[in-house]
Amino acid sequence: MDECLFCRIVAGEIPATVVHETDDVLAFRDIAPQAPTHVVVIPKVHHRDAAALASADPALAGRLLAAATDVAESEGLTDGHRLVLNTGSDGGQTVFHVHVHLLGGRPLTWPPG
Ligand code: 5GP
Ligand code: ZN
Question: Is the distance from the beta carbon of residue 89 to the nearest atom of ligand 1 less than 6 Å?
Answer without folding.
Answer: no
